[in-house]
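In the previous chapter we treated chains in isolation. Here, by contrast, the input contains three separate entities that must be folded as one system, with a combined length of 1060 residues.
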Amino acid sequence: MTTAAADAHELSFVRKYIFSTDHKIIGIQFLLMSLVFLFVGGLLAMLVRWQQGFPNEPIPGGGVLPETMAPGGILLPEFYNSLVTMHGTFMVFFAIMPLLVGVFGNYLIPLKIGAPDMAFPRLNMWSFWIAVPAGTLMLAGFFVEGGHAAAGWTSYAPLSAVSEYSGVSAGQKIWLLSIAILGLSSILGATNYITTVVNLRAPGMTWFRLPLSIWALFITAILVLLAIPILSGAAIMLFFDQTLGTHFFDATGGGQPLLWQHLFWYFGHPEVYILILPAMGMVSDIIANGSRKPVFGYHSMVYAIIAIAFLGWIVWGHHMFQSGMNPTLGTGFMISTLLIAVPSAIKVFNWMGTMWEGNLRFHVPMLHGIAFVTMFVIGGLSGIFMASTPVDIYIHDTYFIVAHIHYVLFGGSLFAIFGAVTFWYPKMFGRLMNPFWGKVHWALTFVFFNCTFFPMHTLGVYGHMRRIYDPTQYEFLKPLMGLNKFITISALLLFASQIIFVVNFVWGWFWGAKAGNNPWEDNGLEWTLPSPPAHGNFATVPIVHHGPYEFSAPGVTEDYLPQNHPPLQVGAGKEGR
Amino acid sequence: MEWILPKGASTFAGDIDFLYYLILVITGIAFIVVEVGILWFAIRYRARPGRRARYTHGSLRAEVIWTAIPAVTVVALGIMSGGVWNDIKGRNSVPAEALPYRVMARQFEWHVTHPGPDGALDTPDDFTIRNQLHIPVGRPVVVHLGAEDVIHSFFVPAFRVKQDAVPGMHIRVWFEATEVGAFELACAELCGLGHYRMGAMVTVHEANEFSEWTVNQAAARTTATPGVTP
Amino acid sequence: MRRTWLAMGIALTFACGGGGESAGGGGETPAASSQPAVAALGTGSISGVVMFEGAAPANPTIDMSEEPNCAARYSGAPADPVVMVTDGKLGNVFVRVTGGLPAGPYPAPASAPTIDQNGCLYHPRVVGVMAGQSLTILNSDSLLHNIKAVPTANRGFNVSQPRAGMTREQVFTEPEIMVPLECNVHGWMKAYVGVVAHPYFATSGENGAFTIGGLPPGTYQLEAWHESLGTKTAEVTIGPDGAGTVTFTYGAM
C-alpha cells in the first residue's frame, strides 16, 4: 500500500486525471459525465413538457432548432417521439445508472471495505473510457438523417425494427450500438465490484459489518452482471433485424414482437432495482448518520435487499399484462410483483425505526435521505395499483405509470443521489458544499418535484395516455389541459432549481469550506482518511472492529465510533455486529 | 388532486373501480402512517443539546409485524385481483353469445369490420368502417384484434378496456357496454409519429336502433369498403 | 427563397390540376405541364393525348366521415381519383422519354414542383421530378398528415406535417418509376412521384393532354405509366417543323 501511495506523486497529469486507474478519480469522472447527461436528460424533458402544456405554441428560443425538429419553434411529432425516447434513455442509462453504480460503486467500495483500490484497476479505467464513446455516440444520434431513435426508451419492436414504420433509420441503429457498448462498460464495472467486495475486504470487515451501501452495490453488481448481457444480446438481435434483414422481432418475417418485450423486461425489471438498490443502501448510511443511531434491523435490511434482487427476476411480466401475453401468466406475475411490496415495506419501516428516538441532525444529505424515504413510499404504493392486473387494464400506459416511475427514479433514486453527492462531496473534493444553498436547493426541488409529478396521478386516473404529442386531439383529455399547464410550469421551475445545485457544486470545489477528515462524524473507514484520500487509500491496512452504524454507543463519549476504532472495554455496551 | 375515476360504462368497470378504490384506501392508510410518522419523528427527535439517541439495533417483534401485515394484505389483494382478472381477460372469459367484430389496427387508423345483420363475421353482409365502432348496449361484444404493422393498443377509457394489438397475433378482447352514447377509443401504445392522433369513436346504440343501423349500413356498404380496406 | 418556392409550387399545382378533385386544384383544365428544361436541347416538342376506350371503371368512394375537416370540403363521399376519365381522355398518366436522347447528364433545375395535401387528397396525384431536384410537400389542411415514401432505388422517408401551411423539401437522388407516397393517418391518400434522369417528362391533365418540350428533331421512345392501368410505349418523331404528336390508348381491363 505504501508503495502505491508513493507512486501517486510520479504520475503524469494524463495518467492521474484522464486515464487514471485510481478508483476515486474514476468515480469522479463518472460523476462529471453523468451529471452532464442528467442535465441533457432534464433539458429534453423540458421540451417534452412544453409540448404537453402548450401544444402548438412555439418554444421560447425554440427557433434555434432545425426545421427537421421544430419548424418555427414548434416541435414535430417525430421529434417529440425522439425526445421522449432519449429523455428516458439518457436518464436511465447515462444518468441514474452511472450516478449510482459508476460513481458510488467506484468511489465507495474500496474506501468503505478498506481496500487500496479495485481488484482490476485497469478494467475499471476501461469501464469509464468505454462509457464515454457510448454516450457521445448516443448524443450524435440527434444529428443524423431521419432523426434519433423514436420508439420509446423500451424500443418496442416492430416499430424499432423496421425503419419504414418510424421514419428513423440511422438513429435507431446508433441507439442500439450505443446501448451495446455501454453494456460492456457496465459488465466490466460489475465484474470488478463483485471481485473487489469478495476478495479485498480489510481484516475484520466481515459480511455483516459491511455498510448497507456496500451490500446494496454488491447485490446490484450481481444484477448488472446477469441482466446487462440480456439487453446487449437483445440489442444486437434488433440491430440485425435493422441491418441484416433478420426477423427476430418482425412478424412479417415470422418473428415475434413479444419476444423483444420479454427480453427487454427480463433485463428491464432487474434494471429498475439496479436503479434503486444502491440508492436504498446509501440512504441507509445517511439516515443512520443523521439520526445518530444504528440502522434499525440491519440484518432484515440486508435480507430485504437480497429478497428484492431475487424477486426482481421473476416480475418482468408485469410490464406486459396488456401485451397479449397469456393471461394466466399475468396472474403469476401479479403475485410475485405484489410480494416485492413486502421487502420494500420492511426497508421503509426500518428507516422509520432508525429515525425513531434518534437525535436527528438535518444536514443536507439527511434532508435528501428523508425526501428519498417519503417519496419512495409514494412510488412504491402507486406500484400496487399497477400490480393488480384488473386495475392495470385501465392505468397501463397512462400518466399514472409516468408518475410512478418518476416517484421511484426521481423521488427515490435522484434524491438519494443528491444526498449521496452532498454526503461524500467533502471526501471527494476536500471541501464542503454551501449548506444554506444546499437546503434551499433541497426545499425547492422537493416542492416542485411534487408539484410536477403528483398531479400526473390524476392525469392517469382520467385515462391520459403517455407519449401523446398533442393531448388536445381527444375530447376526454381537453379538461386536463389546465393540469398539464400546471405540471409544465412546475417542471420548468424544478429544472431551474437545479441551477442552484450546479453552482453550489462548482463553487464548493474551489471555494467551499475545508472539510477535514470527518465532517459528518461518521463511522465509515473512508472518514478516517484525509479528504481527498491519496492514491492507494490506506497507508496501513485498517483493522475493522465494529459494525458500520455504532452511533451513540454507551461507553463512548462521542456519539459515533469509527469502524477501525480499537475494541471497547468489556461491558461497555453491546458489540460485535 | 382528483382521485375519483371517471364514470365507467361497461359491465366490469364496477369491479375494476372497486379494486382501484380498495387499493386507494389501503395505500392511503400506509401513506398517512409513513408520512405522518416521519414528520412526527423529524419534529419529536430533532437534535437538541444534551440529547443522545437511543442505542438499539432493532426489534425482532417489530420486524415480524411489519413483514406480516404487508404480506397478508398483498396476498389478499392478489387473490381478489386474480378473480376479476380471470373474469375480464381469462382465456375462457369471452361470453359465448358475444357479438363478434374484427378490428385491424394500422398506422394510424382503426379498421373496424362489423358483423352485419347476421351477427357473424366472414359473411357477405360484413362491412368495414374506418375509425368507428358501433355496438349494441347490454350485449357482450368480442373484438378480434390484430395489427398490420406495429404494436397498437385498443383503449376505451369509459369501458376500462385496454388490449395491445400485436402484429402476427390474434387477440380477443370482450366487453359489454351499459350505457348508450359515444365514447372515445384511443391508441395507448406508441406506434409512430401519428400515434397521438390514432383515435376513433365507439357508438353504443339501443338494441332496436342498432339492428336498424346495421341493416342500413350493410345495404350501403360492401365488405371491401373502397378507400378504406387495403 | 422558401416563399418563392411556395408561390411557384402553388402556381404549378394550379397549372397541373392533376388530381382533378374539386377541393384542391383549379377548376380549369389546362394542357399538362412539362418540366422547363434547364438547357434545352432544342425547340421542338411532343404533344400527346391519352385516350381511354370503353366504359371507365367506377372509382371507389372515400369514407371521410371520421375526418370532419376534410369531409366538409366535399358534398357527399368524394371519389378516390384512381382512374380519371373525362370524355374519353385519361388524366394522371406519367409520360417520359425513354430513348432517343443524347447521353446526359442533365442538370436538375432549381425550381421545385409542389405536391399539396389538400382536403385529405394529394394534388397533384402524379408528379414528376428530376433526380436531384427538390419536391416541395405542402400541407394545406389544418390537421396531421404524414408523408411516407417507400422507394426502392432511393432513400425512404417518413415525416409529418401537423399544421396547415407547413412545407418541406425532399430530394430523390436516383431515377425511379414511380415512388409511391402515402399518408398513414388517412390510408386512402396515395400519390406517385416519377423521378427521371432528364427533364423530358409530363403528366397528362384532366383532358388527357401532355406536352414535352425542349427537344430537337429526332425519333424518341416514350413510355406512359398509369397507377392501375399499367404502362404503354410509343415511338414518336419530331420533324423539322419541331412538332411531334403521339396518342396513347388505354382500355378497360
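The first strand of chain B starts at residue 99 and ends at 106. Chain B has a mean pLDDT of 92. Compare these points with the single-chain example from earlier in the chapter.
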